[in-house]
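Think of the structure tokens as a kind of shorthand, similar to the way a musician reads notation: each symbol stands for something richer, in this case the local conformation of the backbone. In the example below we present two proteins back to back. Begin with the first one, reading the sequence and then the tokens, and try to describe in your own words what changes along the chain.
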Amino acid sequence: MEAFKEFFGRHRARVLWTALLLLHICFIYHNSLTPAVISSQQSGTVLALARAILSGIGLPEAWLTEHIIRKTAHFAEYALLGFLLWNSLRCYRPAGPLWTALQAWLTVLIPLVDETLQLVTEGRSGQVDDVWLDIAGVCFGTLFAFAVRQLGRRRAGGGED
């Protein structure tokens, strides 16, 4: 137990970012393994809530569809993945080209596995356009993580970790 405490103490950020990353990947893959009927019910619930909010604040809501909700969810969960992936890899401090290659490889691999899982899920289908949307989400999350990091460094006077 002492060895674990010592390791965790020295590598706290690495352990936490990696755990969050792995949990989020499990969440994404769990969603892909959810049968279409259940997934559609979940999207319908979010759609009804979003429409009620729009209507409640006096904005039109008829334009909001389940398709938009689903695509927005795809982008958002992958943007979070990009944020977590960038922060996790940063903790391991790989060399420049290695970091870039690993980030790029995982940016493509995780969405490909996600859509492949949907090929074996009842009522679901893997979609090439979803792979591209997911990759765009990862790229957005990665750029957001980088921007947050740069902003933090500027506010701290440009110091290294």
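Once you have a description of the first chain, move to the second and do the same.
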Amino acid sequence: MSVFRHLARASRSVSQAAATARGHLLRSSLAALAVATAVATMLLVTAGLEGVQQYALDVGARTVGSDTFVLAQVVAGQLSRQELADRLRRNPAIRRSDARYLDRVAGDTLLVAPTTQRGADVTAGGRRYEGANVNGTTSDLSRIRDLDIGEGRFFLPAEDQQAAQVAIIGAEVATTLFPASDPLGQMVRIAGRGFRVIGLVRPQGTGGGVSLDRYVYIPLTAYERAFGAPATLQIFATGREVPFEEAEGAARAGMRARRQLQPGRPDTFDILSPEAARTFVLRLSDRIGAAAVPIALMALLAAVVVVTNTVLVSVAQRTREIGLRRALGATRREVTREVVAEAVLTAMIGGALGILAAWAVLTIAGRATGLALPVRATTALWSLLAAGGSGVVAGWYPARLAARIDPIEALRQE
């Protein structure tokens, strides 16, 4: 029976709080708006960071590969200018002979594909695509990375060896050069040479603000005939049915043997692994989150101040009413419950509105940018609980003042 009594008292407190809020709708709405802004800020920060982080990881998986690592002369990353210059002086350029050496000494463990790239215009008929990312590589790249070829095929080992002038083009290049016809079998010109289109890559979107649909893949031998030998190469590599760590270790050992590096000497090459890319993205998002969380908390604190002020005004205006209720038998505890209920109800309504507003903004932003920015149920629930908690905090001091009102003095007020 005591449970039912508590529920009945809570119900009366909420009803009284709702009636008070309706009686001063504008004031309550402004307080709810402050809470809504704070909750929306929290959700936008949380969902935005999660969405950007996941997007960056997905882009990294598409551009490098989830089980792929890259051997390069230098991976710039977060190097300073001086560190980059020192690394370039220390690390020799990577050549095709390095890839052949790795294939010879660790071919049973590693699958490698030397690759280089540069920007170049691609033309077809009277149309031109400016600044395409032209990649010269070997046929094994399609076995190392999921290039997501939607139509046609990648070039074959024989075509790579014979410097065949064939090309696989990205979706943006295809739609620009062949807006009304099938690109497969058509000819495009790169560096003054004709290349036959044999494959089309499905739309990939953007990564880091750069389109991933502007790529063109041609055999490395044909690339060298068109542009000359590159200053250095990158070697994409993956394991042949061995754990990732074993494959990366074999590549490192092979390159150290190739460079005749004694034990204890640093590597004269860099390795970019998916884990390194993920760590960088996670570290960056953590730094952003460290700055964003205080902003969200400050917004919530501001909302607490606004709700507290609103409830204080409500108590001041209802002093005579509260005194009359006390004179008729209402206890201090009942008055306290009603005032806190008013603050919590205002905050919860504001929290719900903030969740809806954040969901709308994230939905629109997701459609505009192509990012997945969902409002997770657990995040929304915690945000609503935070709003309710802020209501309790905001209502505590006004409730104590209301409970201390002297009925006789209150009734004397006009």
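Compare your description with these statements about the second chain. The mean pLDDT is 81.
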